[in-house]
Every structure is written in C-alpha cells, then in structure tokens.
Amino acid sequence: MSYRNIFLFSCFYLLSITSCFAESILQNSLPKKKLKILIDSPSLSFSHIQFQGKLADVLVEAGHEVHILMLNIDPKMANYTGSSKAYKVMRVERPPQNHDVMSSVQDIDSPFRGVQRNFQMWSQFIELMSGFCEDLVFDKELMASLKAEKYDVGISEFYGHCPFAIFHHVGIKTKIASYAIQLTSMAGYQFGIPTLSSYVPNIIAPTIDGANMNFMQRALNLFTDTYETFYLRNKSPSTIQPIVNKAFGPDFPSVKEINKNISLLFTNANEFFEFPHPVSNKVIYIGGIVQSKAKPIQSEVKAVLDKSNKGVVLFSFGSITDTTKMSVAMKQAFLKAFAHFPQYDFIWKFKLGINDSSLLAPNVHLFNWLDQKAVMEHLNLKAFITHCAVPLFGDQLFNAALVKHKAIGEYVDIRQAEEPQVIIDALDQVLNNPIYRQNARILQKKLQMSPFKPAEKLVKWVEFASEFSELNELNLPMDELNFFAYYCLDVIFAGIAVLIIVLWTLTVALRRLLPVLYHYSGIFIRDQSINFRKFSAKYNRYVRGGLEQ
C-alpha cells in the first residue's frame, strides 16, 4: 500500500470517528421522548397488581406518562392499583353476577386440599380469561377512548392473547409482555423457547426435586409437557380468536401472530434464582423491582420481635388464601409443632375462625394483617413459613421446588401437614442447620451485586423497544419449522436411510462377490497344490540321486 493510500485511509477513519462522536453528542443532547404507555393490570391478586403498579411507577419516574387499565375481577382489590404515580387509572367494572369469579377456581376456593389438581386449575383459568376478554372488547366506548389516546407502548401480563389483541386494535405498535412469576413453558413457547422435559420442570405439575428428576418424574414431566403442548397452548388462542373476530371484525389478524410480534417479556425473576433452562434474548429479568422501603412495624408485632428469646418465625400464606378453611387437624399440627420450639416465637398471619382461640399455644401470636417486608427486615427473624415451603396451588409448588433446588429452605407437602412431626422436622432443619443460612447469604450477595438494576433494565428496554415497535430479529424460529425440521428428524432419517442403503449395497455386493472369490481362490489353491506336488517329486528325485552318487 502506498503512503498516499495510507494517508487517505487514515483521514477517512479519523473523519468517521469524529462524525460518530459528534452524532453521539448530538443524540445525547436531544431531549428524551416522553412515551405514552398503557399498562393492563386486572385485579387478579395483590402480588400481580403490585408488580404491574411498580412498572408504572418506575416508568413515570423516568419521565413517561403511564395509564393503567384495570378490570375489577376481585372485589377485595377494588381500591388497590399498585401504583401511586400513574397519570390515569381506568377501572372497568364487571357485571354483578361475575363478581368474585376467581372463587370458581377450585384450588383457590379450597386451597388446603393439595396441589394435585393443577391440570384442572390452569384449564379453568384459561376459560376465565375468555370471560374477562369479553368484558373489555365489547365495550365500544372503552375501545374508542383507548384508540384516541394514541399510546406508544402497551404492557400487559402474559395471561393469554386478549390484551395484545386489544393493543393491536387500538393502534399500539410496541407490545410488551410482563410476568409477575417465573417464566413458564407456556409463555416461553410464544417466543420459540424449547421445552426440555429431561431437566426443566413444568409449572403445571412440577416435581419437588426440580431439575434432578428420576425416571418416573421425567415420565410425568414429559406427560405434562405433552398435555400442555397439545391442549393448553391451543386453548387460549382458540377461545380468544372468535371473541375478537366478533368484536373487531372477521378480518382481524391471528392472535397467535400478534403475540409472536411481542417485543419483549419482563419477568419478575432473577437469573440466579431459577431452574436452568433455555431462554430467548427477548426475556428480560427484572426480579426484585417491587422492592421498596419497609413501613414502620406495627407496635404489637415489634414488641414480639424485640423480646423473643432465640428469634421469631413468620408464618403467612399470603393475601389470597382464606386460612379459616384450614382444617382443625392442620391447625393443631402447626400449633403442636410450634410448641415444640418454646424458645422461639411464631407470628402467624391468620384469620380467626370459630373456637380457634382454644387452639393457641403461648408462643404463637396471631395478626389479621402484617407488613411482611417490615417483619422480614427485622434482625430477630429466623425463618419464614409461607407457600414456598407449604405450597397450596398455582405456581407455589414450582417455587417450593426452586427453594429446595437452591437449598435455602425445606418443603412440607400440604397433604402431610396434619402430622406435627413432619412440620417439626422441617422447622428443625431450617432453624438449626447452618447450610440454609449460608446458601441464603450467598444468594443475597449475588442479587445485591448484580451489575444492572431491575428498574434500569425496565426503562432502557422499554425506551429502546418503542423506537422499533417489533424486535423480530430476536425471535427463535420455532413456529417457522415443522416438527421434523425443528428436531432435525428429517436429517436423522435421511442419514439412517443413507446408512441402510450403503449397508444393503455392501451386503448385496459381498453376497455376489464371495462365491466368485471362493471359486477363484479354490482354483488358485488347487493349482498351487498341483505345482507343489510336482516340485516335491522333483526335489525328492534330486535328493535320492545325490545320495546314490
């Protein structure tokens, strides 16, 4: 290369760097676009509303305008939005006959019978989603007002296909999914994430051993994945598609295709606290985003925490579970187990039923309501009994399996919770085995030292996605391949066919060549035998002649 060319190349390179640097400065100096964001947040449960509300608050703090669309499903959540900063909250009331519809889901209505009916529960939940969808899409006034707002971004929990169909109808180009729980295989399927039955437990019926499944557990997991693949995954779009076609017209696009174009999925999980599984670049982990400063502890609760001898154990089944439906035998089992640890105090979030006061042990303190976060931050708290330890329904068994997988807690089957010794053994392990505290501290440190904070990831990814509406280059091509191509079965079968043809050809060739070779080898051996006999006779005559001389 000549000096002239080197000089020209250097000048061009320097100008390129200068141009990029100037463009970067210009872009950074430009005012950030204020996005108008719609968040769909049906009142299913406290934790889900809290998660969606926190997304709204974080985005408002970043300078964006956020509206919340809330379908009132649970009357107990009628006054709760989860957000203190949203610009507008649009509540949609359900018909009176549909109030408290969640109680029709058997596991929620009767939570203490065990989690073995999860198959039925998930199917019932999908059916409920179609009813919720009808409450929204046929409200023409609501649809018109949403369309008039001209939203830039729509965010909805990934319950199914209806919210994203609504986003499409009202002209929202950037559609984002959120998930207040761990990423499930049903949600992952929408993004082409494969389901591996060998080591990824299905949330519908997970084994308590999690990823370390034996033969029978893997067989059950494979059955569950098959049930989900051929039934549940198709149930949601097959029920929602006729509804949106009736509401928005017969030419409305496929809800499956709309979901395929979702830009991102924000999941309330953390990479360090989940089972190993394949994942897509569309999945963004923002676990811990709902964390906030704890409120002051109630004086009565604080007194128990401060005065306890060896520490306090918190016992709560959350906001959905009606603890008055717990059997007397189960209450007695827990109380007998608590009495086995007299040096510890037990704070129990519990609604008193008839004659419950007669069951109380002296070291058990009942409260109708607790600020769990405030209690958990107290230094004298030693353990927490919750549905991660005693799972009741939904994703709780999955979470319990995850806790056991990470060795930070013990598991008690709700069907064995009427046996005090089972509870005593689990409590003894958690309170006296140091391995649980060590593992919890290691996990805590990993979460605290994570380089990117959940709120930062949420804001930056939402702003990024809003610029491009669809991020289809991040899609995994699962739906674009048929079953044989996806698993390379066509290649495998072709390879087997070629191998069979080669072996068959060799077999036929050898069967034809062997007789010929045998024939010619026989002639050769016979000729050699004749020559050998002639040589032997001549040699013998020569030897005898020499001897005679």
Automatic annotation (TrEMBL):
It holds the Pfam family UDPGT. It catalyses: glucuronate acceptor + UDP-alpha-D-glucuronate = acceptor beta-D-glucuronoside + UDP + H(+). One of its GO terms (molecular function) is glucuronosyltransferase activity. SUPFAM superfamilies: UDP-Glycosyltransferase/glycogen phosphorylase. The keyword Signal applies. Keywords: Glycosyltransferase, Membrane, Signal, Transferase, Transmembrane, Transmembrane helix. Residues 1-22 form the signal peptide. The chain crosses the membrane at residues 484-510. Belongs to the UDP-glycosyltransferase family. This is glucuronosyltransferase.
